[in-house]
Structures are given as structure tokens and as C-alpha cells.
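stuck on this fold:
=====
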Amino acid sequence: MIDKCPGQDDRNIKAEIIECPDCGYKVEIFSDEIKVKCPRCKNLACRERLPSCIDWCKFAKECIGEEKWKQLKGGGAKDQ
């Protein structure tokens, strides 16, 4: 795994609130996440995913690790 992606600076990660689609609870999600488990109903709350470097960078899997890469690409993702 690469120490740090040159395009990602942890200081730029931001929190926002999205609504759980199942129970309406306001869930905190960070800008580097696309889904979180709702603390109230335990179902997944997902943000609308925008294209990122994992979609085009040939080093993405190495950079973020295979498990995280699979989660983001939708192949055999584990719940968070």
C-alpha cells in the first residue's frame, strides 16, 4: 500500500449530514466515505457517489488497499 495518495490531503476531509433513507435519522458521513451504517436502524445510508480517482487511476487499488477498493467499486463490499 502506498503511504499517501498525492491527490488526497486528510486535512480536506469534511463531515456532512445525510438522511437515512429507511428511518429518516440524520447521519454524519465524511467526504471520503460513500456509505455509513445508521446508528438508529442499522441500515446503510449512502451518499450519491461522484466519480473519483478510483474510477480512473491505475494505482487506486494499491493506494487505498484492495478491500476498500472493492467496497468503493461495488465488488463484494463488506458493510461498514
